[in-house]
Amino acid sequence: MVTTLQNFINGQFVTPTGSELIDVVNPTNGEVVAKSPVSVQADIDAAMSAAKTAFPAWKAVTPGQRQLMLLKLADAIEANSDELVEAQHRNTGQVRAMIASEEIAAGADQVRFFAGAARLLEGKSAGEYFEGHTSYVRREPVGVVAQVAPWNYPFLMAIWKIGPALAAGNTIVLKPSDTTPESTLVLARLTQGILPDGVLNVVLGTGETGAAMVEHKTPAMVSITGSVRAGIAVATGAAKGLKRAHLELGGKAPAVVFADADLKKTAEAIAEFAFFNAGQDCTAITRVLVQDEAHDDLVTAMVEHTKTLTTGDADDTRNYFGPLNNINHFNSVNAVMDALPSHCSVAVGGKRSGDKGYFYEATIITGAKQTDDIVQKETFGPIITVQKFSTEDEAVEMANDVEYALASSIWTTDHGTAMRVSRDLDFGAVWINTHILLTAEMPHGGFKSSGYGKDLSMYGVEDYTRIKHVMSALDA
To answer: Span 148-158, mean pLDDT?
Structure first.
């Protein structure tokens, strides 16, 4: 049965006032699994009003009390893992085991981290910095936060949004992607009886809905995970109201492989990190830069291992990765391959997998030039390029020569090489002999066109706070 979804406002599911509905499609077979409303201004106003009304009381809740609520939410997430997995699988076609371990279990763990982080916010030591006066710093929540989450990891990215904001004492209006709303709505339901009404609100809709949220007068801050284009639009909308913006945008991550690396082990790891979640990950390896003398051996090993990373089967237990998320994205990935320059060669993959759904084969391309679109522009699919370099300086130059600066990795057995190159790579994250792995305690975020602000870690929590200086005369 195709269900009609609802917004979650002030602790209750409510039918939006707008009449437009859009299809939510299962990308494994193209079938409609739900109807999602497109919220209009009145719906956004109601959500913002609920968040604004809830903020003073939520701000006054002690960090210890917020911690207990978030810990209860983490327990509820784990207890309802199966329901969350199925809700998300309907919208993404991702492998169920991957959703369970990499999003639901990881999400619960990260909520627990943020629960503890609520009690660890820091400021400058109180003291007499001006004679006869004591100064101290208050770190406060910014207020209502408008947040827009992406479709590639719908549940986990919702956690990355709400976790630090709630820990810091903010209230939220969150919009999930229009193609993947269902796991976020289950999460919203789980907050009932745990979070006070109005603290977390979920509004469904399209990009226009998100734009209206960003430009709404109520939020003090806006946060998005998405494309560079979407990030620019959010930053522009936020600037009109002098709102703070938190942007986690695209990536074009290089893996820099030196000839001294264990090539077989490196090739297998790179293929798995590159094609995980069908490459629909802004930190996924998309460019392999390999020293001249190791190029052929690395490509051979990568192709061999890539052939074992299957997709395209409706039985997701047989797949290493699932389909591309939606028909528009599927078409865009096909267009990238159709426009491939003649000097490029497809070493493996390069076409649709199966005859239904939006599955695409894991693809390795050799012969690309640094100026090619396939090297310079984000594809966000299971496609990687392999290029040669001669020297360490050339490798760094090629790695940094893109507009994105989110993630990168170095593959070498030489400690000095690893230290120098990790220093010189212009990316927010650098892995050495591994890639893509994240932990709640460490920050994640990029530079340049990959945006600004940090997710995860105490840095991520601090992004959702403001600093106030208080000074008191001692003899008053």
So the answer is: 98
Grouping H, G, I as helix, E, B as strand and the rest as coil, residue 6 is coil
Locate the DSSP E strands across 131-220: 133-141, 144-148, 171-175, 200-202
pTM reported for the whole predicted model: 0.96
pLDDT for 8 equals: 98
Q: Is the pLDDT of residue 476 over 90?
A: no
Q: 106-117 vs 154-167: helix axis angle to the nearest 10?
A: 10
Edge-to-edge strand order for the sheet containing 465-473?
127-130, 133-141, 465-473
416-426 pLDDT, tens digit each: 999 999 999 99
* Cα–Cα dist 210/338, whole Å: 32
Residues in Cβ contact with 349 at an 8 Å cutoff, skipping those fewer than 6 apart: 306, 360, 361, 362, 363, 364, 382, 383
CB of 145 closer than 8 Å to CB of 165:
yes
In this predicted structure, what is the pLDDT of residue 315? 82
397 flagged as catalytic: no
Tens of pLDDT, residues 271-295: 999 999 999 999 999 999 999 999 9
SS3 category, 187: helix
**What single-letter amino acid sits at 60?**
A
Q: Which of 322, 374, 365 is closest to 346 using CA atoms?
A: 365
User: In which element (H, E) is residue 78 found?
Assistant: helix 63-79
The domains found in the chain, sorted by start residue, are: 3-249+450-470 (3.40.605.10), 253-440 (3.40.309.10)
Structure tokens at 194: 């745990």
Tokens matching residue 329 = 């994205």
Query: Per-residue pLDDT tens for 168-186?
Result: 999 999 999 999 999 999 9
* Number of continuous H segments (helices) and E segments (strands) in the chain: 16, 23
Query: In this structure, what are the phi and psi dihedrals at residue 68, rounded to the nearest 5 degrees?
Result: -60, -40
Q: Are 286 and 427 spatial neighbours (Cβ–Cβ below 8 Å)?
A: no
End-to-end CA distance of the chain: 70
Q: Exactly one of 102, 103, 248, 361 is catalytic; name it.
A: 248
Residues making up the chain, counted from first to last: 476
Which residues partner with 222 through β-bridges?
146, 245
What three-state secondary structure class fits 439? Answer: coil
Tell the burial category of 379 from Cβ atoms under 10 Å away from its Cβ (0-12, 13-18, 19+). Answer: buried
pLDDT in tens, 306-346: 999 999 988 888 999 999 999 999 999 999 999 999 999 99
* Residue 380 burial (C-beta neighbours within 10 Å; 0-12, 13-18, 19+): buried
Q: In which band, very low, low, confident or very high, does the pLDDT at 1 lie, cut at 50, 70 and 90?
A: confident
